Amino acid sequence: MNGGTPMYRISVRGLVVTLMLATPFVLLRAMFTSRVLSPDENVSPKTSIYEYSANLIDGKEISLEQFKGKKMLFVNVASKCGYTPQYKGLQKLHEELGDKVAILGFPANNFFRQEPGTNEEIFEFCSLKYSVTFTMFAKISVKGKDKHPIYQWLTHPKLNGWNDQDPTWNFCKYLVDEEGKLVKFYKSGVKPLSEEMRSDILK
């Protein structure tokens, strides 16, 4: 019986290691991130968000300066995610409050490869399934070493003034006010048509 003990310990240890590796770090982080984040006080960004630009889904480069004077809602979107139906809510929000907020969709394949398509495929999917007319950008990375500069600004306190929270999953949302200040981070579960988001947009 004693002879079998070391093998048993090794087996248990191996099982624990396997379970730890099988639980994605990104899911653990998502579990322990607050549902909504906002600064404790009025914080001005260190650099202007309006200095940044990105390519639209059709390849044309635009500057975020064209959205100056209205709020901006940045959303990392994906076509094969449990939150993908939020496209419908984002489109409805665009139709109802588009004069106050610019909905900016950024396709990204960072979470379990849930946005594998090309820009053309993504555009066709959004147009046909959800009739999307809000601004859609070309596919980017929203985390890691190849993070797009706009998402570097959204997630680095030395740039935006306070927030260091990366997207925890697809359909996380960052709200920037009319003056270019980052004012809210929302986790994926906060729906576009929630009273909370509507209230923040209408402030």
Overall number of strands: 8
Helicity, as a percent range: 25-40%
Report the CATH topology name of the largest domain. Answer: Glutaredoxin
The major β-sheet equals: 6 strands, mixed
Notes on the structure:
It is a single chain. Helices cover 33% and strands 16% of the residues. With 203 residues, the chain is an alpha/beta fold. The protein has two domains: 32 residues; 168 residues, Glutaredoxin, CATH 3.40.30. The strands form two sheets. The chain has a six-stranded mixed sheet. The radius of gyration is 20 Å and the shape is globular.
List keywords for this structure.
Glutaredoxin, 203 residues, alpha/beta, 6-stranded mixed sheet
Question: What is the topology?
Answer:
Layout: H1 5-22, H2 25-31, E1 36-37, E2 53-55, E3 61-63, E4 71-77, H3 86-97, E5 101-107, H4 119-130, E6 135-136, H5 149-155, H6 157-160, E7 173-176, E8 182-186, H7 195-202
Parallel strand pairs: 4-5, 5-6
Antiparallel strand pairs: 1-8, 2-3, 4-7, 7-8
Summarize the structure.
With 203 residues, the protein is α/β, with parallel strands linked by helices. It is 33% helix and 16% strand. The chain has two domains: 1-32; 35-202, Glutaredoxin, CATH 3.40.30.
